[in-house]
Amino acid sequence: MKTETTIQGLAASLNPARANRKIIGFVPTMGNLHQGHLNLVREARKLCDVVVVSIFVNPIQFGPNEDFDNYPRTLEQDQQLLADVGCDIVFAPTVEQMYGKKPRLTNISISDITDDLCGLQRPGHFDGVAVVVTKLFNIVQPNYAFFGQKDYQQLAVIRQFVQDLNIPLEVIGVPIARAEDGLALSSRNGYLSQEHRAIAPVIYQSLQKAEQQLHAAIELDTVLAELRQTLTDVGFVVDYVEARTPELQKIHTFNQDVVLFVAAKIGNTRLIDNLQVKYTAG
């Protein structure tokens, strides 16, 4: 496995694969990897001849009060994990390598589907994601790019601008990886105290209960209100509990497939999760 830190170095490493028309798979990450990230690499390995993983903590997707400076940077550990699951090339650029020394005057903004959910709580976040992911797509030029469904809104945003901008690759969503107790794996789980870690699985448990209630014909608004109350009762400060269509449009009646979304803080740690619920008539 190679590690490249420059755009030119990565291009040189990928040139033989391109010359031989190899299928290139790409997994963008911010490092501090867990099994969820490694699952993306495993999926890429199944479909692709060459797998590239980027490790880059992107400053422009963090808000002024967010944890950019404290975000865990664990490159050596990440490299070992990636070698073990079949990554071929790690791309670990500096901020200067990605953004240069001159001011950036170009932005990418996706409307409508970024207006609420995490977009409401984190203004500018998805613009920052769109810029860095577009840059990475241009640098790597993969055939396939792999993203986790835990960040469902992010996945929808990426699919949207890939479609809108005619970026020639296929985006593949990979199911959420969970701990044994159901907590969605996230780099931010490392911030949880022992007490809060014990409470955190209530999010997924509540989502599962909500799914059962929907299939039992309980009204969607009632289900969402109970879900919010359950989380509040165990100590979460809820950012949102929402239902959307798979395309992120608002929905008020369970008469088609629906995605249930939760974002909530326990202590200082903000957790997100979602559950896709299939609609079956009758």
Automatic annotation (TrEMBL):
ATP binds at residues 30-37, 148-151, 177, 185-188. Gene3D superfamilies: HUPs, Pantoate-beta-alanine ligase, C-terminal domain. Keywords: ATP-binding, Cytoplasm, Ligase, Nucleotide-binding, Pantothenate biosynthesis. Its EC number is 6.3.2.1. Pathway: Cofactor biosynthesis; (R)-pantothenate biosynthesis; (R)-pantothenate from (R)-pantoate and beta-alanine: step 1/1. The keyword ATP-binding applies. GO terms for biological process: pantothenate biosynthetic process. It is found in: Cytoplasm. Catalyzes the condensation of pantoate with beta-alanine in an ATP-dependent reaction via a pantoyl-adenylate intermediate. Homodimer. This is Pantothenate synthetase. It comes from Acinetobacter pseudolwoffii. The lineage of its organism: Bacteria, Pseudomonadati, Pseudomonadota, Gammaproteobacteria, Moraxellales. The gene is panC.
